[in-house]
Design brief:
- The chain is of the alpha/beta class.
- It folds into two domains: about 110 residues, Urease, subunit C, domain 1 (Roll); about 325 residues, TIM Barrel (Alpha-Beta Barrel), CATH 3.20.20.140.
- It has 17 helices and 21 strands.
- Helix 1 runs parallel beside helix 5.
- The longest helix is centred in the N-terminal third of the chain and has 17 residues.
């Protein structure tokens, strides 16, 4: 690596931790300056995500944060000062839920590091119809206050469920990645800000207590030897963490990569796998065993697909990426610098991903056929943009055998049930009495999933947001 690029890397890594980032691009999403009172959607077809069916043309009335009435088209009368939206037969569905999003992340390529811009990421999620994010791992130090500011209406963003720091084995992922990518003298600063290392039952209990006291919504553990050969938790330590979390009313989710890691996490009592098995084909005899644990899997197919195809430099931006990210940033994925010394360190891992692209999809198909609930999550990071990444993930889930309706349900009702631990959560569906987190799209997404990216309106908590795409983007 040239001295210039080394300096750039060091400066970026330090500035990410010290200063975060500040967005200088045009605003993507805003609240309207004045509330228009109730909102009446006329002539819309409501998507029932539980059954995967569309209603006849209907009217939907929103009052405050909630859906007040749903009636046949033309039968609802708008209250005074209402905002009336003519749907023209468009589809109204619940706001999307990213069950593995990262608010404090940077989607730029690994060789073009820049500070994360969490406020910009929140805008991008909303622009793309993502109204709820489960964020498993944030080392910024601001994750809990940011979540609370969103809930209080002080910061515009999707509802956030957050874990704070992930817990990992001493020297495990993502610490192992830092030790490959960062100079030795800088690691001491970055490591404690990236994940919390646990090496004993006492460490486990102390780490969980600290996160619980800070306000974590759940605990995340890492059981994945990434890069290959990195240390991972044994089942005993994983059990200690799960038990400590349960004693404080918190569930634990597990980052895994292999069949055996999935077994360890589930036997330890994890409530969900927050990655699919992506490093191998799950043996046929293990499918029923994993299904019997009765926990959901967040497949995150696209993040591994993105890395597997990274060196091909043939990335084509999606419409939503063009609408939310600068053209020069999108182009940079196909401009791999010759002097980058990061990629060779990960060539072994990238080769594993390339060899298992089809297996990852097939694992999802067979697990779902065995009864495992599949949840949609993007894992926002280099190459996975906040908001557009979830749309890419839904497309890959259909390649893994889910119908369009099932893929949409994996990003609406099913994650809402998981997050709330309720069969009938207040969000995740379109029905009277439900929270008005909604998405109006042109066309029928049950027939063509790409319709989900043709967004006409996003409603967040009963507020019709104002969306503005980047001026240099196409549709």
């Amino acid at each position: 690596m040239s001295s210039k690029r080394l300096f750039q890397l060091i400066f970026t890594l330090v500035s990410v931790q010290l200063f975060g980032g500040c967005a200088s691009q045009p605003v993507l999403v805003e609240r309207p300056e004045a509330s228009s009172g109730a909102i009446l959607f006329r002539d819309v077809r409501v998507l029932d995500v539980a059954t995967g069916s569309l209603s006849a043309p209907a009217g939907v009335l929103i009052e405050g944060e909630w859906i007040a009435r749903i009636d046949a088209a033309g039968s609802l009368i708008a209250p005074a000062r209402s905002r009336i939206v003519d749907g023209g037969g468009a589809t109204l569905l619940p706001g999307l839920i990213d069950t593995h999003g990262h608010i404090y992340a940077n989607p730029a390529p690994t060789w073009d590091l820049a500070p994360p811009t969490p406020e910009r990421n929140l805008e991008s999620y909303l622009y793309c119809g993502v109204t709820t994010v489960m964020d498993p791992s944030d080392g910024s130090g601001d994750t809990f206050s940011r979540r609370d500011r969103i809930a209080a209406g002080e910061l515009l963003g999707p509802r956030a469920f957050v874990s704070g720091h992930a817990l990992t084995a001493s020297g495990g992922h993502p610490i192992a990645m830092i030790r490959v990518a960062a100079p030795r003298w800088l690691r001491w600063y970055l490591e404690p800000r990236t994940a919390r290392q646990v090496s004993s039952p006492e460490d486990a209990r102390e780490a969980v207590a600290s996160l619980a006291q800070s306000g974590a919504d759940f605990i995340k553990i890492v059981i994945d030897d990434l890069p290959p050969g990195a240390p991972t938790f044994d089942e005993g330590i994983a059990r200690e963490i799960v038990a400590a979390a349960a004693s404080r009313g918190l569930r634990t989710v597990a980052h895994i990569g292999s069949t055996e890691e999935a077994r360890i996490a589930a036997r330890a009592g994890a409530a969900a796998w927050v990655h699919g098995v992506y490093t191998e084909r799950i043996p046929d005899e293990a499918i029923a065993e994993l299904a019997d644990f009765g926990i959901p899997m967040v497949a995150t197919l696209y993040v591994f697909e993105s890395y597997a195809t990274l060196l091909e430099a043939k990335r084509v931006a999606t419409p939503l990426e063009r609408q939310t990210a600068p053209a020069e940033l999108l182009a940079s994925f196909n401009q791999i610098p010759e002097d980058s010394n990061l990629l060779p360190h990960f060539e072994g891992w990238l080769s594993v991903l390339r060899a298992n692209r089809a297996h990852a999809r097939d694992n999802v198909r067979r697990l779902r056929a065995a009864g495992v609930t599949i949840l949609a999550g993007s894992d926002t990071q280099p190459g996975v943009f906040p908001g557009p990444g979830l749309h890419r993930e839904l497309s890959l889930l259909t390649e893994a055998g889910l119908s369009n309706g099932d893929a949409i349900r994996a990003a609406t009702l099913d994650p809402a049930r998981f997050l709330t631990q309720k069969d009938d959560p207040e969000f995740g569906s379109v029905a009277v009495g439900k929270r008005a987190d909604l998405l109006l799209v042109d066309g029928d997404p049950l027939e063509d999933l790409a319709v989900l990216s043709r967004i006409r309106h996003v409603v967040l908590g009963g507020v019709l947001l104002e969306r503005s795409r980047l001026t240099n983007s196409g549709r």
